[in-house]
User: What shape does this take?
Amino acid sequence: MPVWKYRSIDEMPEAWMMNRDVPLGRRIRALMSLGAMTEPLGTPRGVTKYRSIEDMTADRQRYESARIARIRTRNTPK
Assistant: This one.
């Protein structure tokens, strides 16, 4: 599939901007609401440098343990 680059939105053809039956704004709103319904991953942002593989593994295990605890707390019946 080819990749097309445009310097501005004005250069984009109309076919990419609008579907025949759904305006772009409605499609964007639908995708945004879908994203709001899903749980954020909570992954650390940016790039983290580690001194060793062991440090990286320990950090990943801490992150996964915290995420599992959050999911369990959320899914536990009240």
About this structure: The longest helix spans residues 53-75.
